């Protein structure tokens, strides 16, 4: 796969290479999304470190700095967002699997609840039980969902006609 115009799925150039002209946007690949999460996490944490360093040093303690009141909010937001993005970067494969198995409306509810909790941390007392009830109801509905028909599955995985004829043509 050394031909130009091919993008390998990993750095080793595996057989799962995708032609470059078939990828409209480089950010559509899962590896690039994970890298972008890591970069954004480092940017937010770097901004929070920069804000902290700009603060006045405290004379009583060695590494403690006093941050201005108008910068405390920005410092806390950058720290929280950087830590959450870093956690998502670490668990990216598990987040993808969860996204594939969960319905979109449930993921939207989870995202909305997380946004409310980030903006108003004291709202976790109300939001967390509601989210737990919604998740439990989704789990119960998953339990009662009918299983796929095994007969349909066997029809699709049945051997082809050429394999049947070659099996019958054998002589003992």
Describe the structure.
Helices cover 63% and strands 5% of the residues. With 172 residues, the chain is mostly helical. The chain has a domain at 102-148. Strands 1-2 form a two-stranded antiparallel ribbon. A two-stranded antiparallel ribbon has the order 3-4. Strand 3 and strand 4 form a beta hairpin. The radius of gyration is 26 Å and the shape is elongated.
Give the topology.
Blueprint: E1 6-7, E2 18-19, H1 30-54, E3 56-57, E4 65-66, H2 69-90, H3 92-101, H4 104-119, H5 124-143, H6 150-156, H7 161-168
Antiparallel strand pairs: 1-2, 3-4
Summarize the entry for a quick read.
With 172 residues, the protein is mostly helical. It has a domain at 102-148.
Descriptors for this entry?
elongated, two-stranded antiparallel sheet, mainly alpha, two-stranded antiparallel ribbon
Number of helices: 7
Please indicate the percent range of residues in DSSP E strands (runs of 2 or more): under 5%
Overall morphology: elongated
Mean pLDDT: 76
* Number of DSSP strand runs: 4
Major sheet, described briefly? 2 strands, antiparallel
Order of secondary-structure elements? EEHEEHHHHHH
**What integer value in Å does the Rg equal?**
26 Å
The SS-based structural class is mainly alpha
The N- and C-terminal alpha carbons lie at a distance of: 45 Å
Strand order of the largest sheet: 1-2
Overall helicity? 55-70%
| Low-confidence parts | 1-11
């Amino acid at each position: 796969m050394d031909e130009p115009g091919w993008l390998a799925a990993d750095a080793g150039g595996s057989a799962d290479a995708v032609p470059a002209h078939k990828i409209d946007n480089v950010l559509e690949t899962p590896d690039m999304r994970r890298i972008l999460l890591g970069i954004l996490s480092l940017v937010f944490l770097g901004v929070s470190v920069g804000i902290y360093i700009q603060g006045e040093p405290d004379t009583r303690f060695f590494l403690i700095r006093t941050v201005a009141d108008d910068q405390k909010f920005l410092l806390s937001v950058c720290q929280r967002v950087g830590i959450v993005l870093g956690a998502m970067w670490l668990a990216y494969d598990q987040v993808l699997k969860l996204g594939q198995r969960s319905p979109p409306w449930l993921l939207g509810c989870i995202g909305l609840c997380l946004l409310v909790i980030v903006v108003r941390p004291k709202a976790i007392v109300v939001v967390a039980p509601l989210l737990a009830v919604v998740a439990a109801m989704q789990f119960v509905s998953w339990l009662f969902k009918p299983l796929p028909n095994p007969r349909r599955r066997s029809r699709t995985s049945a051997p082809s006609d050429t394999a049947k004829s070659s099996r019958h043509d054998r002589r003992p």
